[in-house]
Amino acid sequence: MTEQSETSPSYHPVIGVDLGTTSCTMAVWDGVQLVVIPGPMRSVVTQNPAGQIVVGLAPEGDAQPVIAGIKRDLGSDERLRLRGRQYRPPEICAFLLIELKRQAEAFLGTPVHDAVITVSGSAAEPQRRAIREAAGLAQLNVRRLLDDPVAAAAALGPDDRERTYAIYDLGGGTFDTAIVRIGPEGVAVLGAAGDPRLGGDDFDEHMVGFALRQIRERHHVDLSQDENVRTRIRREAERRKRELSTAETTELELPLLTATVSASVPLSRRAFEAMIEPDVTKSLGHLTAALAAAEAEHGIGRGGVDQVVLAGASTRIPSVRARLAGYFGLGPGDIRADLDPGELNARGAGLIAREFEPAQTFEGTRPGLLGANLRLRAEMADPSPAAPDAEAAGPPDLLPVVPAETPADYRPVADASHRLLAAANHRTRPGLRAAYLAFVAAIQAAAPDDRLAELGEILVGEYAALG
Fold it and tell me: Where along the chain is composition biased (Low complexity) (predicted)?
């Protein structure tokens, strides 16, 4: 990860976001070089015991529901239950983007309104629309949806002479591959293929199945239908899978799966590689399809590939790298992993993001977006994901007074809201608090009259809803 210099960087506040199935990473240009924002953030949404939305952190126990891998559900009509209500996939994705926006603003020290967001190259139009909708709910202008392989290639930067690369992007939930030519003029995609439902999550499920079979044989009990047990094993599988990238053996430690069952399941790297071999072979089938397209259109076959570029955390698995070297007949040095494969797509998105001028505000015009954003933010646990411009009215635990220049039409409701919030712990009325802070911040920022009117009407609605 690039360290910030001691001098104050001049950040370009258009962020690159790698919106991953299992984790999200961001990068930004600081005026001199690309900086990866500290993270990554896990792509999980859950709730705490108080019923508030928590983003990026798995619950401490098994009692709270968890929504993970939402990227695979984007574009579908799936309904997901949390906090006793139904959410659509774009709304769950919006929680992730709201929190990412908050973290980016905290890191940059300035409001962020714009992003370049990665998307699986195999994503269809419904999934791309869903990402744009989620970004709108998070009050982010999408400057570009960038296909994952193009992001990985962009991270390499231009080359003095033309070279041909195979991008092999095996993430948590999706697989993308492309044959690209990189030269002084940039990146050209020669052929591409992929699978939106192939990735490290599938490897975890193989480990879960293996562990459940071992438990059944040793303890004579079938726990495969217990979702809490499967979740526990899946979390442990994620950790032990990473260990097997450097160790020959590991053990899945599973204490107190039930009142009477605890287990320790040994697993060797060789056994793990055998489990995932069909999935790796499937990925190579997609690579063959991308090469076939490149050869048909541009005359570039397997022998014309100079190097393989790895992206996605699942490419850290040694057998994946070995299979790729054998497939192309290349040496280990030509299977490039000099850039962190978990950061590569974010880096590419960050480099593309610097080409766009930052906006002064969110530019979405669809009615109701701001109100929906405030509702989602109000449902989230602290630290509040309100943007710095909304919190600039005062420290997070203090309530700003109503500005003297408040429009007369909204002065009564602003005064009444302030009195109500000041009379009790204002954090117990998150919807009214978020609306009030946004309204006050807009007044202090001399926002246009139409935006003040929109925020004022939202404040009126939140106050009225309290009866």
Answer: 382-400
